[in-house]
Amino acid sequence: MEFDRSGLEVLGPRECRALLRHAEVGRIVFTHNALPAVQPVNYVVDGEDIVFRTSGSSRLATAATGAIVAFEIDDFDTEARTGWSVVAVGPARRVSAPGEITALEKADLRTWAQGQRDQFIRIRPEMLSGRRIRHGPDGIPEERSVRGRCRA
Q: How many structural domains compose the chain?
């Protein structure tokens, strides 16, 4: 097991990808009017890519298309003081090929928000990083050692 300087366990690329496949809701970080913006989205993993739906006229679709974005998922148990986080960074693009759209329409991608979601956005992760915090039986973080980062 590898640990960063903060004492968090560093997750390897395989575990980062597995956790991405496990979750259903994540947060996309993009730039809107030269400021950082964060928006929750329902998503699926298609191959190695993260895919979500949005309205073609949304600020997310406009700002994220052709940009480098970050995508984050996490899960925490505040009572046990444990949890993990995975961040994927890479370019986002609108899906425009008819065959690709047809295939994605068959994916198990259920949006929670109301309204029309007529555009698929695909993020190709070029960097993955993940961290986990675990506490021992006495409530103190487990022993930590070295620093690291996983790459896609």
A: 1
